[in-house]
Amino acid sequence: MARTRIIAAGLVALVAVVFGRAALFEFTTWDDGLNVYENPAYVDRTAWSVLSFWRRPYEGLYIPVTYTLWAGVVPAARLGIPDEHGIGFNPYPFHLLNIGLHALAVLVAWRILRLLVQSDWAAAAGAALFAVHPLQVEPVVWISGMRDVLAGLLALLAIWQFLLFAQARVDDRARWWRYAAASLACALAMLAKPGAVVTPLLALVPSLYLVWDRRRMVVLSVLPWLAMAVPVVAVARAAQPSAAELVSVPIGHRPLVAADALGFYVVKAVWPAGLGPDYGRTPQSVVSGEMRLMWVAAVVAAAVILAAWGLGHRPALPAVGGAVFVLALLPVLGLVPFEFQRISTVADRYAYLAMLGAATALAGVVARLRPIAGVAAVVVIGLLAAASLAQLSIWRDSFSLFDHALRINPRSWISHHNMAVEMARRGRRQEAIQHYRSAAMLAPVHCRWLSHYKLHHASIRDGDVLQAEEHWRLMLEDLPAAQLRGDVNLAKLLAEAGQVLAEAGRLDLAEATASKLLEAGALGDAAAITQLVSQRRANAATTRSGGQ
Prior knowledge:
Helices cover about 70% and strands about 0% of the residues. By secondary structure, the protein is mainly alpha-helical. α11 (about 200-210) packs antiparallel against α17, α20 runs antiparallel to α21 (about 415-425) and α27 runs antiparallel to α28. It starts with a helix and ends with a helix. The model has no long low-confidence stretch (mean pLDDT about 90).
């Protein structure tokens, strides 16, 4: 018992040492405004607005558990007076939440590994890897990454309780309570982030290793969880109706994209260098051959897993780890299109739960080859912790983040865009405009509209009306109708802008705006603008005839 407490305290201390400094980091402009400090539900301070997260998706995501937990932090984070950027919240409580959730996830991962390897210290080595691997930095340090950490923690709780249920005696009264707890955690994980729909499979694989002789019972017990995942997937797809249109990848190309993504994660798990928020590994870059070498690693990893699985009736523990690693990534490999693929198929945060697989493999090796493997594991974990500490400072504020992002990927249009936002916040307008122009030049056609929209407003502030009108035209040309259909606020903004343009006599621009709204199916808004344009033209004609 004393050893258990010592190991648990050591793991928590490890998380605190590596990630504690992040508690004093700032918000970033990388979705933190959208999710937290500009979120209307938190700014409005009403319980009813928080309940809206359970009634419908917010900004293309149905993750009500995540938004409800953030709502619980809001009272502690609210500032009496907004800061110089107009932000009314203190970021520190949100960072502390992320770090605390990660510490809990590490402890649960350790419990899972103890069941699998029957060794406290080997399990501790695996949990330490899960705790400090540099791939974990993004979800833990980035405030918006809390959804990945929360979903990961809940999924780990579900797996842990399911393993206890699976190995319990049939006459154990607590057995079904564990199953109920596991089922609840599984459901909450899916509502924290849809990617957690793989939790049933992640519970199944280690359970088969642990109680191979009860495999029929284990499989049957997972079936209700798989059924639970069906409506979650349906809601997630409905929440992003434009994803399939905006990320168009032929079915025949998707296995190549998935293999490349899996290979990327394998390589970064083994050699976590050059990490950043945007790798630019879009489906198009992979299919065109610009970035295709990584798929070789995916083939090698798959071969190793299959070979290890075939060694006997019961899978070997490294094979279990490999299977968990692959299955955890399944929703984000690109076999089914998702919206972030416009920027990159791969991202560090997507590997959060998958690192349980790497931890399982390491724990299995340490348990079998100790003490040599144990010494090697300590060295490796020390190096990983040092790498994570170095990676940490990149996330201290928006400037540091996007400066690093552009060093890793100079062609990252989204990093140029976000750097422009940060430069504008700092009053460095010319630098902001330059980054907006770079973003417009580098972005794929269907993503350029946002930069042109920002440049339109910058031109208005500079008094350059002709340039402002040109950027508005370019924005309308590049704005996909699917994007407009999937974003109610954007459609409302365009409708209001169209009416303002018509009132100001910019009738051609107003008509172009109405045409875009019509293309997106906003018939009422388009008709209102068209009617106003017609009235303006009629009034102008009457004025001319009266003057004659």
